[in-house]
Amino acid sequence: MKTRYLLLEDGTVFKGNAFGSEEGSIGEVIFTTAMTGYQESISDPSNCGQILTFTYPMVGNYGINPDDFESIELALSGVVIRELAEQPSNFRSQRTLDEFLKAKNVPGIEGIDTRKLTRIIRKHGSLKGKLTKAGEEVNIEQEIEKLKASIILKNVVEQVSITRPYPSPGRGKRVVLVDFGMKHGILRELNKRDCDIIVVPYNTSAKEILGMSPDGVMLSNGPGDPTDIPKAIEMVKEIIGQVPIFGVCLGHQLISLASGATSFKLKFGHRGGNHPVKDLTTGRTELTSQNHGYAIDADSIASTNLEITHIALNDGTVEGVKHTKYPVFSVQFHPEGSSGPEDSAHLFDQFIELMNANEQKESLHA
Ligand SMILES: NC(=O)CC[C@H](N)C(=O)O
């Protein structure tokens, strides 16, 4: 294996082995504590522009299979692991992680101390990082100076959303699913419930969405800072009160911002497969799959028509809200799992129930 460096903007240098693409990249270095599900994490479009570190010490051991993708193309900038399993063993495996990342042109580094890296990120917050080209010896000080001055991808939602609507037919509720960088898991959960889905691009207007006569609108997850897409916030403002809405992750942040709340960047984000979240309406705690760098400010919710329904037990931040007047609710975590626990899959049933109840209400008024 050729040598590769991971350089951080604080001056830290890790020397490891290159795998995946020979090319270099820059990105925001983040970490996930998920112990399985690397294929799903790597293909989650919410990681656009990010270099993803796995704290689990061996990655790649069950290979890459045809079933577990969360997107068609990869959006992330790089992968950092302690030890790459070169010979996967699993009946579904079709290729190795290394082969897959080569084919998708994503660079990886292995053989570095990911515990040390994670401690640095936890201490300083997420950092900009650079993965050097495989085998290239660089002037490290110069590269770090360049990295400090560099700007990481902007308009990330635009890069991962679709450009034209497409249908995913069913015989049940008509759902317009707004794709901000949607994980396929959301589509799978709606399909399982036989929804008649139209997936639309992130910049679809409220008028166009309502013109599709939806029973409900689902707002997907997606990468980046939610305040970077003000038009989407406007669109959500216009559909609140018109139609039942369910938001996941970025979708949750957009519903909150559209209602007058504010967002902030977490120091190092929540990424993993076992984040405990308390549902304040039932008192029940569920283990959740999470992948977010931003969160909604709890205090800012007081002056809105929203109420907090879920909180993260690790740090007390907001993990879910619902509207006090309209059938609108959202969660910051991933009820679709993909990968991760399925404790919260019932929220998709709640969305169906909300659409049914709304239809009954409308027919009473007809
Ligand atoms: N998975 C997501 O939708 C993440 C939302 C947003 N990009 C964040 O980092 O907070």
UniProtKB/TrEMBL annotation:
Alphabetical keyword list? Amino-acid biosynthesis, Arginine biosynthesis, ATP-binding, Glutamine amidotransferase, Ligase, Nucleotide-binding, Pyrimidine biosynthesis
Which residues are named in the active-site annotation?
C249, H334, E336
User: What domain of life does the native source organism fall in?
Assistant: Bacteria
Q: Which SMART domains match?
A: CPSase_sm_chain (SM01097)
Q: Which reaction does it catalyse?
A: L-glutamine + H2O = L-glutamate + NH4(+); hydrogencarbonate + L-glutamine + 2 ATP + H2O = carbamoyl phosphate + L-glutamate + 2 ADP + phosphate + 2 H(+)
Q: Where does the chain bind L-glutamine?
A: S46, G222, G224, L250, Q253, N291, G293, Y294
GO BP of this protein: 'de novo' pyrimidine nucleobase biosynthetic process; 'de novo' UMP biosynthetic process; glutamine metabolic process; L-arginine biosynthetic process
Q: Does the keyword Iron-sulfur apply?
A: no
What enzyme category does the UniProt record give?
ligase
Ranges of residues in domain Carbamoyl-phosphate synthase small subunit N-terminal: 2-132
In this chain, the stretch annotated as CPSase covers: 1-173
Q: Which InterPro entries match?
A: Anth_synth/Amidotransfase, CarbamoylP_synth_ssu, CarbamoylP_synth_ssu_N, CarbP_synth_ssu_N_sf, Class_I_gatase-like, CPSase_GATase1, GATASE
CDD domains reported in the protein's UniProt record? GATase1_CPSase (cd01744)
Q: To which protein family does this belong? A: Belongs to the CarA family.
Q: Which PANTHER family match?
A: CARBAMOYL-PHOSPHATE SYNTHASE SMALL CHAIN, MULTIFUNCTIONAL TRYPTOPHAN BIOSYNTHESIS PROTEIN-RELATED
- State the oligomer form and interacting partners: Composed of two chains; the small (or glutamine) chain promotes the hydrolysis of glutamine to ammonia, which is used by the large (or ammonia) chain to synthesize carbamoyl phosphate. Tetramer of heterodimers (alpha,beta)4.
Q: What is this protein called?
A: Carbamoyl phosphate synthase small chain
What organism is recorded for this protein? Answer: Psychrobacillus lasiicapitis
